[in-house]
Amino acid sequence: MSDSPGIALVVGLGNPGERYERTRHNAGFWFVDRVAEQYHGAWFREARFFGEACRVDVSGLPVRLLKPGTMMNRSGQSVCAIASYFEIPPERILVAHDEIDLPPGTTRLKRGGGHGGHNGLRDIINCLGSSFWRLRLGVGHPGHRDQVVGYVLSRAPRGEEDLIMNNVEESVALMPLLIAGEMERSMHRLHTEGR
């Protein structure tokens, strides 16, 4: 593990399989896939971490990326396995996930808090605590809580998907700051300079 105070593990939340690939609930996967692409990482299936992992170098510092291979509501099994293996404390973990309480085109970075009904976050909190960082990628809300499951497990209209992907790109650009532990600068750029 690096001596940097910044992020050492970036987790993207989503559901595995082609059926879910382009659904709103997989926005976290979209983010880590772009990070891996940007920094020339190669994904490999890692049974002991219950998912796919890779390692990239950002500004000369090593960063591990993870896509849990469990379904969303078992994400903690994968995250806690890799965090334990590499002795990465929660405050050096960033979890990227879809956020229904933010509209498409809005992304927020925060540390700690509750799960807000997100089953992936709920499972991670159950085994890791709540002090990890979250990259909240806005996907919008269907308008009624009874419609949330169907909404997040469906594909967004093209215009909304483009907004989400733009936010993914803006967030990928923050990786050097996140890895260096410059969280305030990251939040300022994302919250005031971004959408």
Overall description:
The chain is of the alpha/beta class. 35% of the residues lie in helices and 21% in strands. The protein has a seven-stranded mixed sheet with strand order 2-3-4-1-5-7-6, with helices on both faces. Helix 1 crosses helix 5 (158-172) and helix 2 (75-85) runs parallel beside helix 3. The protein is globular and about 40 Å long. The termini are far apart.
Quick structural gist:
With 195 residues, this protein is α/β, with parallel strands linked by helices. The chain is 35% helix and 21% strand. The protein contains seven helices and seven strands, in the order βαβββαββαβαααα.
Q: What is the strand arrangement across the widest sheet?
A: 2-3-4-1-5-7-6
Quick check: average pLDDT? Answer: 93
Distance between the termini: 34 Å
**Strand/helix succession:** EHEEEHEEHEHHHH
Number of helices: 7
List how many beta strands DSSP finds: 7
Globally, the shape reads globular
Helix content: 25-40%
How much of the sequence is in beta strands? 15-25%
What key attributes describe this structure?
seven-stranded mixed sheet, 7 helices, 195 residues, 35% helix, 7 strands, alpha/beta, single chain
Write the layout of secondary structure elements.
Blueprint: E1 9-12, H1 27-38, E2 44-46, E3 51-58, E4 61-68, H2 75-85, E5 93-99, E6 107-111, H3 119-128, E7 133-138, H4 148-152, H5 158-172, H6 175-179, H7 183-193
Parallel strand pairs: 1-4, 1-5, 5-7
Antiparallel strand pairs: 2-3, 3-4, 6-7
